[in-house]
Amino acid sequence: xxxVEKTRRSFSDRINELFAGFRQVDDEFFDDLEExxxxxxxxxxxxLALSDAVREEVLLRGASSGEQVKNVIIEKMVEIYDKxxxxxxxxxxxxxxPTVMLxxxxxxxxxxxxxxxxxxxxKQQGHKVLLAAGDTFRAGxxxxxxxxxxxxxxxxxxxxxxxxxxxxxxxxxxxAREGNYDYVLVDTAGRLQNKVNLMNELxxxxxxxxxxxxxxxHETLLVLDATTxxxxxxxxxxxxxxxxxxxxxxxxxxxxxxGGVIFAIRYEMDIPVKFIGLGEQLDDLQVFDAEKFIYQLxx
Length: 299
Ligand code: GDP
Hints:
Blueprint: H1 5-20, H2 27-38, H3 44-61, H4 66-82, E1 99-104, H5 111-124, E2 129-132, H6 141-152, E3 156-157, H7 165-178, E4 183-187, H8 195-212, E5 219-225, H9 230-242, E6 247-251, H10 261-268, E7 273-277, E8 285-287, H11 290-298
Parallel strand pairs: 1-4, 1-5, 2-3, 2-4, 5-6, 6-7
Antiparallel strand pairs: 7-8
The structure holds guanosine-5'-diphosphate.
Function: Involved in targeting and insertion of nascent membrane proteins into the cytoplasmic membrane. Acts as a receptor for the complex formed by the signal recognition particle (SRP) and the ribosome-nascent chain (RNC).
Membrane topology: Peripheral membrane protein
InterPro entries: AAA+_ATPase, P-loop_NTPase, Signal_recog_particl_SRP54_hlx, SR_rcpt_FtsY, SRP/SRP_N, SRP54_GTPase_dom, SRP54_N_sf
């Protein structure tokens, strides 16, 4: 299976090791289990919650074989991830016209690549897609998105480098409305270092988008890089203070042993991971399915 290979190896190797030498569920076993999760960036809090839940359930069931204990771990991971209700990974759609999706995140996390992949996916589904190069700040960002537009073969609205992103947003919204587009994917500048500017810029873009298309942006996605581990969680918390986020895209899960951060994000924040990035190609974006992910990690 493509993608989660490295994360899986890290979880699986450790878990398999644990079960290879399995004798009984004792304190040593739980110490090793906790270490395996923490080193995969699952995060301290979820690790402890998980460890406690597994301990309790193992006792309750009198689970004694390695296989039984492994199943308890999988069940409890799913349960703790779901938090009493599986988070929705559906995109908020605009029923009355173009759905506007805003992409935020710091430079280098894979924002542009994700927009390209998303455009490809939506186009494959038969939708009419427009891109908007709203990152006028970073050198090369406009050209990079133009390259994706070419590759996917969808139109793109651009402005001048260092121009006003709100004017790009305006042009894109107008074009989307008049041209009967289904989706507009809007890139933004990832300047978390200057939070006040970022907030003002995003606010202005959102005001203009809403004026042109009611309810826009309908979906704001925060893009995070899984290889940064716990730092991705820090970024999520920072952005959460700055802008209303509907969902997270966790990229580069193919190249990391730190994919456990997906659980830390879920455990500590109420924002669902909606998509995962598993490579640099156009079809390397997947809707996130927690249960499938957990089964792949541990089985
Ligand atoms: P941006 O600055 O946030 O727009 O980031 P880019 O989209 O330019 O991506 C930064 C780098 O990460 C590029 O080299 C991408 O090819 C790479 N990248 C993005 N997503 C993924 C992914 O899911 N997996 C891998 N392995 N690389 C990715």
